[in-house]
Specification:
By secondary structure, this protein is of the alpha+beta class. The chain contains 3 helices and 12 strands; from the N terminus they run αααββββββββββββ. The protein has 2 domains: 41-114; 119-276, Beta Barrel (Thrombin, subunit H). The N and C termini lie far apart (137 Å).
């Protein structure tokens, strides 16, 4: 008998489970008016955990699928919020740039009102790639009344002169360019000379006799000589003064008054010879 039970234990267990399932089913669908006996209550209490476990197993795939779908929706929402955040950041940055540009233009307009000569406000729109720190292009041209040799200044001092115009644009040669020269005087001692460009962010005061009273820290302004630049505009400050090795001439280095690296707007004046 024992051998029979061991040999057929799987079938016997399956049969018992089926019988138990039929019995439970019958009890679950019995008339509610029928009283529940102790045996029935005991069987139900024993079967309830099994039923709960089976229910959880059956509902697990559906719940998992719902969770995966919800996770996908959350990821899409996070991506959308990130994109919206990036767009807002770009918009804020753009608004800040516009605001800063407006402030600079307002400042330039106020400066123009204080200038002694009629001036046109021009915005720098590009640098000559072949001479990066020696010329740039402005958004004013011959249609705006800009002429070749028109002086170009900023609130700090002389910037350069117009050397080429088209209908809408003009090119300005900076005083830093070696081909540039401006008649100048030492504002303190009134010693005269010519400020020349060096091709870098320094100028030199040339044609000054040895022994002339020029000292470090002296302001250098335009003299009005030469017929292009008006008198009295700042050119720079004397940085150093040395004699050449042979002692025949003086080398005077001048720091420009204009910070060319931060220029956004400049003022184009009428040529000096346009005034009576």
């Amino acid at each position: 008998m024992l051998k029979f039970l061991l040999k057929n234990r799987s079938r016997i267990l399956l049969g018992l489970l089926l019988a138990l399932a039929v019995w439970v089913y019958a009890h679950r669908h019995a008339s509610p008016l029928r009283e529940s006996g102790p045996a029935k209550n005991l069987s139900l209490s024993l079967w309830q955990p099994v039923q709960d476990a089976v229910g959880r197993v059956l509902t697990f795939p559906e719940e998992t699928l719902n969770a995966i779908q919800e996770l996908g929706h959350l990821r899409q929402e996070v991506l959308r919020l990130q994109q919206d955040n990036q767009s807002l950041r770009l918009q804020i940055a753009s608004d800040q740039l516009v605001g800063e540009e407006l402030k600079r233009l307002q400042a330039a307009t106020q400066i123009k009102a204080s200038m002694p000569r009629k001036a046109k406000i021009a915005r720098i729109i590009g640098h000559d790639p072949s001479t990066w720190n020696k010329s740039f292009v402005i958004d004013q041209g011959s249609d705006d009344g800009v002429l070749v040799d028109s002086p170009v200044v900023s609130e700090q001092g002389i910037v350069g002169r117009v050397i080429e115009t088209t209908a809408k644009y003009s090119r300005v040669l900076l005083i830093l360019d070696p081909d540039s020269g401006v008649g100048a005087i030492d504002a303190r001692s009134r010693v005269a000379g010519v400020v020349l460009g060096t091709g870098r962010n320094r100028l030199k005061l040339d044609y000054v006799d040895i022994g002339e009273d020029v000292q470090s820290g002296d302001p250098v302004i335009s003299s009005g000589m030469g017929g292009i630049f008006p008198k009295g505009y700042a050119l720079g400050t004397v940085f150093s003064k040395t004699q050449s090795d042979n002692g025949l001439y003086t080398q005077i280095e001048v720091v420009p008054a204009v910070d060319f690296a931060v220029l956004d707007y400049v003022f184009v004046l009428e040529p000096v010879n346009a005034y009576p």
